[in-house]
Amino acid sequence: MEHSSSKPKNFDADPIGNLPRGVSPNGAKGADDNDLNEQIIADRLLAALSGGNLVHLEEARKSFVKREPTEQELADLAAQLERRSAPRDTGRSVVSDDQIRKEEEALSRAELELEHRRAEVQAAKRKAEAETKRRAAEEARRQLEEETQRRALEEEQRQAELEAMRQRARAAVHERAGRAEELNAEISALRKYEAEHLGHIADAEARIRIQEEACHRAEDAANERRERQQWLSAELETLRETEAAELKRIEEIEARILKQMESRHRAEVETKRQAAKENQLNAAVEALQREEAAQLQRVAEIQATVQAFEEARASAVAAVEEQSQKAQELNSEIKALEKIEQNQVRHVEEAKARLLRLEDTLRKGVAESKELDAQERKLNSEIEALRQAETEQRTQLARIEAELRSRQEAHQLAAANAEELKRTEQALDTEIEKLRTAEQEDRTSIAETEVRLREVEEATLKAKLEAEIRGEQAEQRLAELNAAVRQAETDAEQRRAEFERLRAAEREQLKLLELAEAELTIQQEAHQQAETKFAQLVDKEQSIAAQRETLAKSTDELEKRIKEAEGAIGLKKETQQELTEKERSLAGEVVSLPKSGESNKVEAAEARFRAEQEAHEVARSEAELRAQEQEQKLIELRAVGKRLEAESQARADEEESLNAQIETLQKTKAEQLKRVEEARALVAQAEESRADQEAVIARLVGREQSLKS
What we know:
Number of strands: 0
Order of helices and strands: HHHHHHHHHH
Largest sheet: none
Shape: rod-shaped
Distance between the termini: 22 Å
Number of domains: 2
Radius of gyration: 62 Å
Structural class: mainly alpha
């Protein structure tokens, strides 16, 4: 950017310019060189302004500012006045006017180009205001230059008149001798007048020094404000770090909440599954208990039947001799009994099949009990994990409470800082108002000084030159004071904006803390619910374990009774076979018995046969009753199965509704995370804008320091 295209080909880094030696700056050659130097300096101003090189801009500005006259130059003023009193060439004066106009035109072009470049660089509103102020200053300076030129012309005219008077005095020497004393008196009066005006100028300089001291105080205040700004920047950095740590903790809390929600969901699913299995086991246990009672009843009935058969066999053995007459009837009845026995054997086989099914159910119950044990161990591990998570949560809650307390302390500190900033802003406003009042007084005093300077310029060229130099210095100091005032106003606005951003950031942090507290409250409630459900699960598991023990005991007793019933059935078959063989032998014996006493034996045998027939009828009716009971149990079991299916369907529907609720919660959580991300993006944008503003402030401070240096 420093090598701008607006520089001329013969551009030199020397801000003063390289004048050829041996040529006077007051000659024609010197005038052309001055014109060239002014053009070069104007190009340098444009190049430095467009490139942002403040060093070149300061050098070019110093080239425009006239240096203060030395003692040698002040000593040569009298000689210059003498030379000015000599007759001058009119053509040369015209040339000097042309050169001055050229310089003015060149300066005007340079100023217009400079204004154009500055208008491109500066921003909208503030740049336009600065441009307006600068143009007003340039217009005042141009008017001052025009006034200076006009006064120079008037002075030249007056000098021409004086020269004409001197020529007339040369023509009339005697008149010159007479007026010499008058001129000396006028000169002494002018010197007195000059001394008075020099005193006024000294007073103006004293006021200017006072303004300079005020400007230095304003600079000290600005330095103090910059230090406060750095302190505020450090505080903001600390707040940003705290906010980042808080956001990280919030993310960790959210992750833990999600994990606990997942654990809670798994625990609920496991609880429902355990409840379903518990219901199934309860139903199976009840069915086994009912089946066991039925089996016990059947075993008791079979034992009673066997005992009746044994009694019948004993009575038959005792009355074999009496059954000879009705052997054939007995055989037919025995066949009927065999049929009944076959039916009973078939019922016994069905009972065995039912026992096998019960054994399968028992094995399934044992497997399910093992699975329940594994699930119990798994639940115990999950409970331990939940307890650890609870401990971590309590630790996290304590840490969050400590952070909340630290946040509140930081909030109080920020409020105190805000109050201090308000007081600082009020003090700055007071200082700015004082500076404006001082500026107005300076302008008034400068106007008075200009009036006095015009009077001094009429008196002497020396006073005019000194007044012009001091007027330019006063303008520079006023410009610096204006720049300091604008900088103070800009700093105040930036501090107000920074304070507003701090308040907004504080409000956002308070909102985030409230959300985190609400989520923690929800999490604690969910944790309490999970603990309650866990306690219920533990109670249910204990009851299931007790039922499993009872079921195992009843199963063992049932197996023993089944074995006893099978043994009794085997004995019954053996006794039936023995009875059949004995009946056959009795039939043979009946045939071989003598006819004497046959009628008594037959009657006794008939009586026993009727008793056995009645016993068989009772056993058949009992067997039919048991078959009906078994069918009723099967119907009840089918109803229980249907009820279990309906309950499983209801649980499936409930699970679907829970899944829908979980999806809704997940969507809500995603929306909350999205809002958190948007808030983070807004915070990042605010930080970027603040960083940009800090960079602009740092650049302006560097430019101000370079201008001061």
